């Protein structure tokens, strides 16, 4: 599968702190079921504690998510409001806003930068509804980037477009021709690209690469204006028979390496179990320090929702704390019933 080749290339190129890898089967030869599932497209009902202020759309504006590079070099989803032309596609407008030096530069929050090469234009964006596929055709300026930025560019394009409810996979073209590899460092893109390629890749300590699998989890960081925001990280971990449970265990273990990311859960929280039924994933957490009636941190609970929906593709999360669900978070959000993934996060005030 393409996404395993992409992980392997990232490791060999130094994007992951991995030792020398052996060729052939093993490390990235897991079955397709181990890939990262697309996030659900459903009615959402959870706001994020890391929303930098109450940001509301003006009349006629559309809210969309862009993946921009932060000052730490990591990609983060940023929610923006914009006005679409009569025949303008949201996905195309999102990509145009991600071009370095574009006319929309003043709409990008401080501390974040666009990742598409300066001068790039989106010649065409076609949507194939029955395949939930976006085919984006860039101008020749798309090839004008440093090889070190290649993976970030691919990740940003994929994760931005698949934030649209009608898109689950992407093909990249340039000047009217389909690309089978990226122009600079030949990253393979010969198959439809999904979120299975990961984002902000890293490897857990002591991972057995011959049986590893990716999980995507959400930590937080702080902008230059001291505004917190969520950052997704795809971490290679030892494969297990319950990847959703492993994802939350990794969330509890916190950030690794020297990146200035913040943990969203304390290490004394225990994941008792994670189960799936229909469109709901249920997580049972044990927190011996929790006192009944005490609000739980919204940042923690919403990171759990983001992480579980990202890794399972299910639309709702039921959180049980010490066997009960009759609690509220610090935003006064109740968790008695299953809650849905927020459609947009990190909405910075302009």
Automatic annotation (TrEMBL):
Q: Which SMART domains match?
A: Germane
Q: Where is each GerMN domain found? A: 91-183, 244-330
Residue span of the signal peptide, if any?
Answer: 1-24
Does the record's keyword annotation contain Ion transport?
no
Q: Which UniProt keywords apply?
A: Signal
Q: Its domain of life?
A: Bacteria
Pfam families recorded for this chain?
Germane (PF10646)
Write down what this protein is called. Answer: GerMN domain-containing protein
> Which organism does this sequence originate in?
Paenibacillus sacheonensis
């Amino acid at each position: 599968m393409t996404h395993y080749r992409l992980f392997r290339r990232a490791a060999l190129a130094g994007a992951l702190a991995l030792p020398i890898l052996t060729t052939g089967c093993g490390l990235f030869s897991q079955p397709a079921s181990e890939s990262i599932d697309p996030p659900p497209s459903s009615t959402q009902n959870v706001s994020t504690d890391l929303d930098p202020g109450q940001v509301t759309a003006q009349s006629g504006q559309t809210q969309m998510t862009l993946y921009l590079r932060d000052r730490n070099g990591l990609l983060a989803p940023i929610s923006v409001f914009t006005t679409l032309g009569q025949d303008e596609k949201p996905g195309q407008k999102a990509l145009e806003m991600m071009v370095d030096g574009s006319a929309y530069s003043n709409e990008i929050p401080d501390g974040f930068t666009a990742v598409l090469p300066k001068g790039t234009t989106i010649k065409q964006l076609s949507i194939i509804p029955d395949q939930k596929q976006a085919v984006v055709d860039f101008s020749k300026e798309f090839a004008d980037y440093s090889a070190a930025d290649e993976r970030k560019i691919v990740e940003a394009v994929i994760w931005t477009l698949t934030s649209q409810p009608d898109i689950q996979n992407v093909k990249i073209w340039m000047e009217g021709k389909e690309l089978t590899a990226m122009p600079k460092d030949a990253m393979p893109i010969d198959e439809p690209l999904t979120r299975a390629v990961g984002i902000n890749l890293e490897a857990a300590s002591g991972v057995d690469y011959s049986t590893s699998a990716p999980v995507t989890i959400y930590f937080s960081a702080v902008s230059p204006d001291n505004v917190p925001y969520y950052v997704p990280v795809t971490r290679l971990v030892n494969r297990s028979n319950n990847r959703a449970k492993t994802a939350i265990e990794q969330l509890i273990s916190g950030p690794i390496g020297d990146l200035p990311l913040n943990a969203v859960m304390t290490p004394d929280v225990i994941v008792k179990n994670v189960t799936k039924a229909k469109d709901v994933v249920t997580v049972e957490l044990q927190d011996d320090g929790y006192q009944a009636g005490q609000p739980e941190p919204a940042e923690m609970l919403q990171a759990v929702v983001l992480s579980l929906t990202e890794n399972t593709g299910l639309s709702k999360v039921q959180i049980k704390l010490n066997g009960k669900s009759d609690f509220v978070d610090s935003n006064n959000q109740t968790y008695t019933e299953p809650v849905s993934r927020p459609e947009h996060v990190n909405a910075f005030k302009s």
